[in-house]
User: Fold this.
Amino acid sequence: MTAPRIVVDVENGVAPWRQVRDQLVRLISGGVLPVGARLPTIRQLAADLGLAAGTVARAYRELETEGVLTTGRRQGTVVAALPSHAPDPLSAAAAEFVAIARSLGASEGEALNAVRARYLGE
Amino acid sequence: MLVDIVIAAAYGLVLLVLLWPTRSTAERLLKRWDVPDPTPDQFEDAIRYLRRRRLLYPLLFAGLAFVPTLRGNGVGQIAVIVLGGTLLAELLALRPRRDALRVATLARRRLLDFASRWVLGAYVVIVLAVAAYLGAHQQWNRVLLLGLSAAAVGVIIWAAVVRPASGDQVVDLALRTRSAHVSAGLGAGLAGALMDHPIGFLGLLAWIAMAGTTPRHLKIRG
Assistant:
């Protein structure tokens, strides 16, 4: 059995810290990372993902604020509780799409038109 | 001097050709380090790991021509070459990743999660004992070389913990274990060679024993 993994695409338009945070939430909500599971240190995860330590620290900090993770001196960062609301996959996909559309300079109307065209085309 | 360097580099080149990693080399390495049924991708990871180290041999042999204390000292010379190759390769592996898609495993990675405490402890004891022996005989140049080799082993072990993960998770951990154990073994072999005493032969035995010590279960695999 291998440990769960996190995949970050630095070119998909979604902030890397957000990708880390959302994947951690999904893994915890799905029971892959149970309450009490130890997470890698910020430095280790940042090195493995080729990100700045502050980027991973922000993802951890967000989840600590929500009570999902807790960091202790001896235990390091562990899963403390299940997220109060599991992320809606459609909403998460929409967030990614909006981020990409914004990075391309598309307006809200243009983005909606592109989605509509896709729906009608399929 | 130039002739010495060219001869040393040629010697390293011959060794590189003889030890050029192949699929069967990788298979032996992976089986030895607790990966019994490697996949093609795992073979590739192991071959890449070995090539990055052994490609440095000609360069290191040439560089050793500048260290008269170890020139002609069989065990010590080989230990320095392999230790130097491991050190440079581990330092190069610390470079941050630049590809767009990056993968990380959510398992905490600490030294004793993949390295044997007995190997590391034995290495520390050997270094301290040899340092005491050399100090008692006032061989300060050798104490300095011992200190340098211990620093190199320390950096290799540190890098084996902190370097970014690459390739298959199981192979990545097995190769981190190998780096830590083999570098400690090389350090022990080099320490023994520096003693210039029949008992220094124990360093060679420690090298063989440490490089062959595989933890029964890598805790980190979860």
